[in-house]
């Protein structure tokens, strides 16, 4: 079998072995003890030619119902948005995608500057002055934020609202276990954090309060009230997880006194791709700049005074701190951060509000139509592009019927909230048309007879 | 902005220019501002660029021209396995049926995706010799931490709360001790001996009833195979500890030996290294973990299983460490790795390791006459030179790295591992031709000569790059982390 990624010829091999002074390549592996040497070939599928493999994998892909062919009302943390064509053209440039972390600034100015621009965009969106180069995703970024709050305040208890994405909360629980942090969940009331309960739990043992804005139900959390509560607990940190698209319309959490704002930029230029890779962001205050996990790019000049960019404040990072590290993150999601930067450049200063508004208007239209069709909407507070629909059959059963009509229905809230079985979380983004929304309402109505 | 500076995207911005193409507002609208308390409505728009589509393409094409990837040239960055990134991987990852699927779709509608994941898990089990694999972790460090959390839970499940220490060799990747710390362990260092291998006597000393695990790369970061691996496994296992394999260096041994056969209880793999997921300028990666039967109950949730002809996620896993990442790992990177494994098969993967090791040994023997080689035995997929000979001439390893830039190469990893003075860690990978290796060797020899005859040219390098050495001190002292208009 020929292997197109392996350029060595038999002649090359012979010449090289001569230089090494070995009779065969086998000799180079003689340091592996015989007891652990494989005696048989690995049991893997046979090597496959490019054409055949592409065909096979295309068939495999075609077994999946994809968001291009189906009309989706599914969100719950991962959204189907317009992706400008320029995005894939930029991230397909192999100087970007085949590069490593920009350790050598002289030949990595492209990536470094792209990250610096990303940091600026995130800072603009969240209203906080410092943003890092990106994290794995919104969920793990939240886990890192909570760990940072405990390390910074030297406190071991954190209050997290149940309106935060269930999987993000689960990640926080796992992330904090190594640090012995106690997580207390605050119930939801009318679709938002139960402020009274939060107030009762808040005392001087609390490292941080964590909410999501807009929250998992799409509702807009009362950040102002939480900020006021925290006035009495100055040391307690305020952590907000935010869908950054919503921040095109909503006041950024930084203006409500948030100490850390995290989230996922999947909404900007990154396809759903079955949940990953997406791109976490992490932003914070000047005060916490030297405690930020992950990589930071800073502006500087070279010997000639030309502006340039470098990885900076590396004393925070695992490769320097080793066993004293408070985060072990090494990679970031540079290529996806680049995708989001390109998308944000394309959408631009005024496009962002327009895009956010389109989401809000279309979601409101869907909600109104459903109400007119006799459906009940569970929570009535202000929302972004998602709302909770009460249904009278198991959501999974409804979704099975919808898929036959070419529709991917909303998220089954009963999976994460037992009290919300027969409640569907419906997402409506800017790419849903009026006709698609009308069909969705009609089909839901038909299912309910 | 000085004249020679490359503009920021914000500096290309002009009020009123647009590049977006949003769908029409085709629904009746309501007054949004009435719905919300005014304090929740953003008053100042974020300062995003206002540019045309061509502005965007010129800007980012310009940036890409100021960047260096594997497709640009040789990238022998030790420990990072900068091999060629196959183009079929990129094509496959962009198929609509893989790109545009939502993680919360009904499992029945994503059976193709689950089939790929399951088949990848099976392949990785076979390659590593482990009993179970989870594709959840997003990157190598994330995989390390995930496996350590499993080991922690394993000990605790036996009522053993005394195992607070994780042993790490002094040559280990920085993520090893950091992951141990984040998982709540104390990291203990074990020394390297004169062979460049773990000092067995010292290992015996540090191992004890408080040992949770030993973390090890094999071959180690010096590129040397730990020949005492079975003895080490025995020492750790006899003390009740677990053996953890950092898969960063798996590229050296595929088809020759397997972590599972060496006695490892848990491994993580870097699919963006060995299995050609591109590095993306720093990510996204993917860091699956493989474990033995004994550790399987502790795998992160959900666990993908096959029931009859259907694939399904299991969430009811009472001993699981929980969820380590939302959804199902970095699917897009896992798909690329799968495509690569299917392209190569067992025969190809063994050749990968054969040539990775051949290339490294060839370069090592060619360069040992010109640079100090601290450990003389055959290496595996990478080797570490010391620049101490050149240091005596006033030329530092950093200078050598910068001089390489003038010849169009990405330098090796420098100053790592920490136990070699002025280290230069070279990993050629198997995808490079002999001509490429020879070209690089010639330049390395030339630089060694320059260090003797004309050290300034090395000390002052680079001379040919678009920017010179950066003022990193000021960058850290007075950080500028974003642009302000």
Automatic annotation (TrEMBL), chain A:
SUBUNIT field: The glycine cleavage system is composed of four proteins: P, T, L and H. In this organism, the P 'protein' is a heterodimer of two subunits.
Descriptive protein name: Probable glycine dehydrogenase (decarboxylating) subunit 1
The keyword Oxidoreductase is annotated on this UniProt entry: yes
Record-linked NCBIfam families: PRK00451.1 (NF001696)
Uppermost EC category: oxidoreductase
Function: The glycine cleavage system catalyzes the degradation of glycine. The P protein binds the alpha-amino group of glycine through its pyridoxal phosphate cofactor; CO(2) is released and the remaining methylamine moiety is then transferred to the lipoamide cofactor of the H protein.
Protein's GO biological process: glycine decarboxylation via glycine cleavage system; nucleoside metabolic process
Record's catalysed reaction(s): N(6)-[(R)-lipoyl]-L-lysyl-[glycine-cleavage complex H protein] + glycine + H(+) = N(6)-[(R)-S(8)-aminomethyldihydrolipoyl]-L-lysyl-[glycine-cleavage complex H protein] + CO2
E.C. code: 1.4.4.2
Domain Glycine cleavage system P-protein N-terminal: 4-443
Species of the source: Compostibacillus humi
Coiled coil feature spans: none
Family to which this protein belongs: Belongs to the GcvP family. N-terminal subunit subfamily.
Pfam families: GDC-P
Record keywords: Oxidoreductase
One GO molecular-function entry: glycine dehydrogenase (decarboxylating) activity
From TrEMBL, chain B:
Positions of modified residues (N6-(pyridoxal phosphate)lysine): 273
Enzyme class: oxidoreductase
Pfam families cross-referenced by the UniProt entry: GcvP2_C, GDC-P
Annotated Glycine cleavage system P-protein N-terminal domain residues: 51-300
Recorded superkingdom: Bacteria
Names of the cofactor(s): pyridoxal 5'-phosphate
Keywords associated with the record: Oxidoreductase, Pyridoxal phosphate
Residue span(s) of domain Glycine dehydrogenase C-terminal: 353-455
InterPro entries, A to Z: GcvPB, GDC-P_C, GDC-P_N, GDC_P, PyrdxlP-dep_Trfase, PyrdxlP-dep_Trfase_major, PyrdxlP-dep_Trfase_small
Subunit structure: The glycine cleavage system is composed of four proteins: P, T, L and H. In this organism, the P 'protein' is a heterodimer of two subunits.
Name the UniProt record assigns to this protein: Probable glycine dehydrogenase (decarboxylating) subunit 2
This protein's encoding gene: gcvPB
